[in-house]
Predict the structure.
Amino acid sequence: MFASIDTLVIAGMLLGATLTDLRTREVPGWLTFGGIASGVVVAAIHGVDAALVSLLGTMIGGSIILPLVLIGAFGAADALLLAAIGAWKGPVFVLWTAWWMSLAGAALAIHAWRRGQTTFPYVPAISVGTCFTVLTA
């Protein structure tokens, strides 16, 4: 079984985002905005319907945790990373990613709480959620 190009692109994007988030607690804008733009452009090459699905995935992915970004519980890069995943894989995939990501995030939050940490990088939870979505799709 071979991975599709979109899955490989997302894997590379998430690997870079996770390593950066763990080291610096930031994700570069070029990575998230580049992921969104490239996902929409590649979809547009495949036609209007694919572009619309990509745009819908971008909007849903970006808005899933937007209320939490607005109150400061998450960083904007987390929402942008979900938007990039939605741009590449569409709305259904990004919704499943959010489901699995929330479970992974809960486990990471419990771990951080037990260690006395008040915050923790969330991109690893997004990466785990994406991996589970790929494996269960």
Remarks:
- The two ends are 13 Å apart (CA to CA).
- Residues 91-114 form the longest helix (24 residues).
